[in-house]
Amino acid sequence: MGQVYNRRFIKGLIFLILFAAFFIVFANFLNIGYWGLMTLGEIPKLDDSRVLLSQGILALILTAFALTFYTANIIDAHKDAKKIQQGWSIPNLREGFKDAWDTGFPYLLVGPGLFLLIFVVIFPLLFMVFLAFTDYNLYNAPPKNLLSWVGFDNFAALLTVPIWRTTFVNVFSWTIVWTLVATTLQIALALFLAILVNDPRVKFKRLIRTVIILPWAVPGFVTILIFAALFNDKFGAINRDILIPLIGTGLPWMTDPFWAKIALIGIQVWLGFPFVFALFTGILQSISADWYEAADMDGASRWQKFRNITFPHVMFATAPLLIMQYAGNFNNFNIIYLFNEGGPAVRGQNAGGTDILISWVYGLTFETQNYNMAASISIIIGLMVAGFAFYQFRRTRSFKEEEEV
Questions:
Q1: pLDDT tens digits, residue range 325-353?
Q2: What are the helix (H) ranges across 86-161?
Q3: Transmembrane region positions (predicted)?
Q4: Which partner for 143 in 48, 61, 163, 311 could form a disulfide, CB atoms 3.0-4.6 Å apart?
Q5: Would you list the domain boundaries of the chain?
Q6: 155-404 adopts what CATH topology?
């Protein structure tokens, strides 16, 4: 009606046809989708709650598309009405198509990627979020049983049910320790080595850098499996060839949670520092030597030059990537699972002694089929990682200066 009011009859007719086609084609699908989303089915073995939930989510996405398109139509009509009041002449059909093509071409190019993003990323995420508010588990699985909405009961169980509370607290605490210690150590080691190799007195820099970066060139899963064999309690080379000859006994790397965590942190430092080393090396080479010469003339010590020149420059240039190192290790599933599958087992909890949140979610999903609890924990993980990354990005100088550009 807004387009008709502006005397753009063809444009209004096109919008009318599009909206009519949308409701004619999707009316039944939307009806079933919203019914399934609210009820999750009524007849066991006939209604599959998972299918109904999927259709309901698709109905929400289609509705969001329609509302977005409708809002864009209203805004467009409002802008045209203002232009007409200011003396703007209504373009003819050819000019209208040309203007639409010029303004809509970027959206035409972005459209396929956006469409793929919605149905490959957003749809599974929404499905996971909705599962967190149902009672979907091994003993209540469709199509034999119907799912029910349980509100925030799954989140409450993480804090009230003893086994869930104990497991969540232990796993969450180890995840934080693992993220902070392993990532900080790999960054500190990389910075230390980069500064040493960058020293003008060091010769054969290219050879040294190549050797240091070699662990990065080897596929991560291969390195982890090799280390799992080296740390094996019975036949591992670390116990058999190093510790037993030196101290007379080996350490329970695989059977004791404490020593397994120490091994995992060491492996992650080995895997992670070459990338950060390469990153820091490039930044150090970009620092002007004049700054250090001026600092020498002022009588600055090595520590003062590091604290006031090297460290701030390196952190300014690499802060966003270092933040992603922390976020990546927070969800570093590969090393936890490939080393010893999150073990060893711990009495009184349904997660292994070295499980982090993401590996615990994997176990709940594929081993015990606690889909509702796994989805609830996944939401917590997502909120934590997103919140941490956003907060740190907002605090970095590089992000603040980009906003000022």
A1: 888 899 899 999 999 999 898 888 899 99
A2: 93-117, 123-131, 153-160
A3: 12-37, 57-75, 107-133, 171-195, 207-231, 258-280, 309-328, 371-391
A4: 48
A5: 2-151, 155-404
A6: MetI-like fold (1.10.3720)
